[in-house]
């Protein structure tokens, strides 16, 4: 008992020390490099101020923070919230996933993975924003370390989603049940466990050089969590169906996350055990499937792109097939090629589905730029039924998607809040839509907020950098708070965009 108390105390001291060190370093940047103070030149050929958009895309995560906010918090209309989350278990911190006040572990882990991948691939281009990106990652991983502190147990949700959605209240006011839900040996959840392992492993690469002690903690935990995911296989939305559905049900199963998790652990550890795992299990885990969706639930495509690097750049011949699978995905996106499957709006936006379509736009743009990087390193191209697709073509397609998001569309509207002259004013987000604590110190009761939610008044608090679900298949966007499918932002929409904007800002001389 004494040793466990000592270990916990040491762990807590370590987190506190590493956080304050990170805070000090980033504070040095914040005073001079606040994204709200930039007045940057616009290269004529760039079309957009990608550096400004990058700064804001990272700043957004500060508006989603739960827990005790740090002194250098830049979105100042937010205040501390969820300070007793977990009760018997410390689950304070982390992110609210979207416009509500629930902490869902599955999308939070995916957000952390994609933020980390953004930094891994393009962090060297971020300049002063790199520190802010690391802080955004660490806010998630500190929480994920708490959620995975007990062996063979992961706390995957804080808050009763149904009761939370029955209220429209600020996170600072929330009085709905903060029930805690977990997966364990008896109630497995391989997809959320493997995604959590991916997040911890990817983040370990981000911190390996600047904080090796923290990085070691992350990768050690990732190894343990992945073992749990693989040993106790099951779908988390079966055992926790009443809690996580219809919000974050797993539709793609857990096979894709196991492959994805093994790929990240191989990249983070270089342990041949994970390469062998991929070789033995790859086919049964969906390596050869034609599913071309990539998002918080489905990692098939992401795993293919990630593993293709091991073949293209590291020359691991046993992963040759993943280059072919990645090429098939790319070909499915290119209009006019024999295997083209992707749908685009009349204005040119990739369109997957009505609900939060922009998440697929940002994740696809990131994958295109990342795969273009791998292909360039290996001096390779993609062959789509005789049509040669170069890395520059992939970059052009990604840029067109990002440019649409930033305002090159039929409505001339930026779908990033706070960027450009016209952007959504009535986003589906409780904290943004209700008066801040500073202007309205009194508590706003559960149902009272619906008067504002249903009104036409613009949100009083600008959630700078938030990217909303986006327009419909005909490029229409009503800008209505009640329309969560189109007007709600989410952390997993922004996370891959951070990497894409970093590349574009650097390419056009803005960083």
From TrEMBL:
Enzyme class: hydrolase
Organism domain of life: Eukaryota
Ranges where the Glycoside hydrolase family domain occurs: 50-501
Keywords noted in UniProt: Carbohydrate metabolism, Cellulose degradation, Glycosidase, Hydrolase, Polysaccharide degradation, Signal
Alphabetized InterPro entries for the sequence: 6-hairpin_glycosidase_sf (IPR008928), 6hp_glycosidase-like_sf (IPR012341), Glyco_hydro_9 (IPR001701), Glyco_hydro_9_Asp/Glu_AS (IPR033126), Glyco_hydro_9_His_AS (IPR018221)
Active site: 428, 479, 488
EC number: 3.2.1.4
PROSITE patterns tied to this protein: GH9_2 (PS00592), GH9_3 (PS00698)
Residues in the signal sequence: 1-22
Catalytically driven reaction(s): Endohydrolysis of (1->4)-beta-D-glucosidic linkages in cellulose, lichenin and cereal beta-D-glucans
One Pfam short name: Glyco_hydro_9
Gene Ontology biological process terms in this record: cellulose catabolic process
An example Gene Ontology molecular-function term: cellulase activity
Residue spans crossing the bilayer: none
Protein name in the entry: Endoglucanase
Source organism: Camellia sinensis var. sinensis
Native organism taxonomy: Eukaryota, Viridiplantae, Streptophyta, Embryophyta, Tracheophyta
